[in-house]
Amino acid sequence: MGMTMVEATLVEWLIPDGVDVVVGQPVMVVQTDKLDVDLEVEVEGTLRHAVPAGATVEAGAVVAWVLDQGEVVPPASERASNRPSSATVAPTDDVAVAVPVTPAASIKPGDPPRQAASPRARRLAREQAVEDGSRGPEMVAPPSVTFMAAVVADRLGLDLATIRGSGPGGQVTRRDVETAAAHAVRTAAISSGGAPLPDGEDTVIRPGPGDKVPRSGMRRVIGDRMHASLQDMAQLTLTMEVAADRMEDLRGQLRGLGAKVSFTDLVVKATALSLREHPGLNAVVRDDAIELLHEINVGVAVAVEGGLLVPVVRGADTLNLADLGLQLARLADACRSRKIAATDLDGATFTVSSLGMEGIDVFTPIVNPPNVAILGVGRIRDGVRWEAGRAVPSRTMALSLTVDHRAVDGVPAARFLAAVRDHLETPVHLLLD
Q1: Does residue 107 lie in a domain region?
Q2: What range does the domain containing 174 cover?
Q3: Are residues 253 and 136 in the same domain?
Q4: Which DSSP string corresponds to 62-75?
Q5: What are phi and psi of 90, to 5 degrees?
């Protein structure tokens, strides 16, 4: 998941212990310092958990086995490397974890798959008897509950025994808990005479007053890196207005021909060409030297739930506008669906960040180390330009360039920003390069 990865947290088991899996089936959610990702199995067989959900393990550790028929889990003496690292999350009674692995040798052919049950689920089972019509009243454990499902249910005060699971074998997942909570909110709103929530807004549970949101994973990494960036660099921000009329005209003409080009596509292409012309901003600071880089790999900030990811368009200056647009769309979709590969997040030599879609005109982007510059893009808005002494309505956009003053002075930074502006104000040239 990346050469710099040293440990990861197994956030959630998607498949219970002892269940058969097939090639390509997602079985776990793993969190690194950059993203949460579903991991798929590459062979078919019986999945056996080696560590509980919530455990943080070192890179290279075994977290599960997929066993062929007749195979058994290796003896404990042969799997010392599977022990969780010192950063292992210590579960509490109200946080679900997988039950200890049952030796495969004790599972007999025809036995039902064993499911992980959280302490909370087991407590609910003790407190509530589930009626089984064929055998009379008895205690029946509720379905398996994933780690994150139990965490969210506990925070929202929901009874897991009342939630229908959609996972394998009726397993209750985080989405099941969020859906149940949304249904409760919607029902309460309607019963009190209020309007139901708009579609799409009732499936995401957001923190509310009184909640404590852990500064962990992606959130921690973003904060630490940005803080370190401001501490380690002498950052300077320059702002410049760009006439956007021709960009809008070009997009309209291309749309009429069946081609879809976004403003982000145009900005990234203009940025890549400008970096070719001004290589001093495509660099890193190493010890006492400024190293100018050969490749122009533009990272584009993408907002996702809980933070920000920066996928990288490699060789952006060598791609035509159509191919660059396809790459950006693929990377953005992969980020939002959490299917992005770690290799797609490494190697940016420059970063573009846009808040225009949020209605922001101008902002101060923070340089993403080890880059020496970042370009911020504001919204396109109505403006005025002067021609022959009279005001003419126009469309304008603000660009904000932040540079590391250790590597880039104000004048070279201004010339680079002017080059980006010139490319965007004559966007037809972006189709030709």
Answers
A1: yes
A2: 7-191
A3: no
A4: --EEEEPTT--PPP
A5: -90, 110
